[in-house]
Design brief:
The chain is α+β, with helices and mostly antiparallel strands. It has one domain. Helices cover 31% and strands 18% of the residues. It has five helices and eight strands. It has a three-stranded antiparallel β-sheet. The chain has a three-stranded antiparallel β-sheet with strand order 7-6-8, covered by helices on one side. The chain has a two-stranded antiparallel sheet with strand order 4-5. The longest helix is centred in the C-terminal third of the chain and has 21 residues. 33% of the residues are buried.
Length: 208
């Protein structure tokens, strides 16, 4: 992330703090064997998100049955999203499979997925960004934490060099959100070569 974006983010934080609302977001990476996976089956990790607001800390749980950040304002969501973008190079495996980790019902997806597909944290982080930025339709745009190459017709979950290209799209989108001061309705992540497997294109046009 370039210096300009960081400066803008710091500016947002200072504005929030000066208005009497101290907010801070951070994430932790936990081995799943400590909680979710007591039998040490998956040997993976999970991301937990924490948000401090007026001395009250809100955090995500494993399944996100109720998205704790769904009704946050956009400036707060962008603080969280900035933290999740830091997982760009983290290829540690998420402790679970793609088929068992999705938002919404199975009928929300156009297709089913092989339950044995592995999910690296770098993709899990993007998946969570979708849930935070587009909470009401994230399961339509990104059914599963699986990225797909529309040219080669292959899943790219185990190709971190290609996932990094997806991150470039997310970072560009993030910079635009920061510049505008809001998260728009347009979902730009199913328009290029690499898309969310089974996801639909945005219901809105660019700029909306």
């Amino acid at each position: 992330m370039n210096l300009t974006i960081k400066n803008i983010c710091i500016g947002i934080f200072l504005i929030i703090a000066c208005n009497g609302f101290t907010q801070r977001a951070w994430t932790n990476k936990y081995p799943c064997a400590e909680s979710y996976d007591p039998d040490n089956i998956y040997l993976g990790y999970k991301i937990e998100i924490f948000f401090l607001k007026n001395n009250d800390t809100i955090h995500s749980n494993y399944y996100w049955e109720n998205n704790p950040f769904k009704n946050f304002n956009d400036s707060s969501k962008l603080l969280i999203i900035e933290q999740l973008l830091s997982y760009e190079r983290d290829t540690s495996l998420f402790c679970g499979t793609a088929g068992a980790h999705f938002y919404g019902g199975a009928l929300s997806c156009k297709c089913h997925i092989d339950n044995n597909i592995k999910v690296p944290l770098q993709i899990d982080a993007l998946y969570r960004i979708n849930a935070i930025a587009f909470p009401n339709v994230c399961w339509i745009y990104s059914c599963y934490p699986v990225l797909y190459d529309t040219v080669e017709k292959k899943i790219i979950n185990e190709k971190p060099e290609l996932v990094k290209e997806v991150y470039e799209t997310y970072k560009q989108w993030f910079a635009e959100c920061i510049k505008k001061g809001k998260i728009g309705n347009y979902f730009p992540f199913n328009e290029g070569r690499y898309v969310w497997y089974g996801g639909r294109k945005s219901f809105y046009r660019k700029g909306e």
